[in-house]
Amino acid sequence: xxxxxxxxxxxxxxxxxxxxxxxxxxxxxxxxxxxxxxxxxxxxxxxxxxxxxxxxxxxxxxxxxxxxxxxxxxxxxxxxxxxxxxxxxxxxxxxxxxxxxxxxxxxxxxxxxxxxxxxxxxxxxx
Length: 126
Known about the structure:
Strand 1 and strand 2 (26-29) form a beta hairpin. 58% of the residues lie in helices and 11% in strands. It contains four helices and four strands; from the N terminus they run αββααββα. The strands form two sheets. Strands 1-2 form a two-stranded antiparallel ribbon. It has a two-stranded antiparallel sheet with strand order 3-4. The chain folds into two domains: 1-34, no CATH class; 35-125. The radius of gyration is 36 Å and the shape is rod-shaped. The protein has helices at 9-12, 37-87, 93-96, 112-125, and strands at residues 17-20, 26-29, 101-103, 108-110. With 126 residues, it is mainly alpha-helical.
């Protein structure tokens, strides 16, 4: 091995950098004369750490987007269930009490297809 730094031979043979690997082992080596500790750290980061951080950030963003979509799906399912329940109400509910849909000023109790038609007519009129 050559001694590019002109240090005494025993000093030139000592490891000048060390990286602790994920498995707990240490990798050691000698600096080349044109490289510095920062260059080794930058190279290690760009090869091992940087891509992993990017991957984790992308995964976190994907999971956040999925959580937003899951909440929206849940909200839409609740809306659909509520509408189906209201649509299925018996017109006699007006006499027995309870929740129902009616059309005013005609005071008509609506359910099924009649409720659906009235809802779509109201939506189209907005």
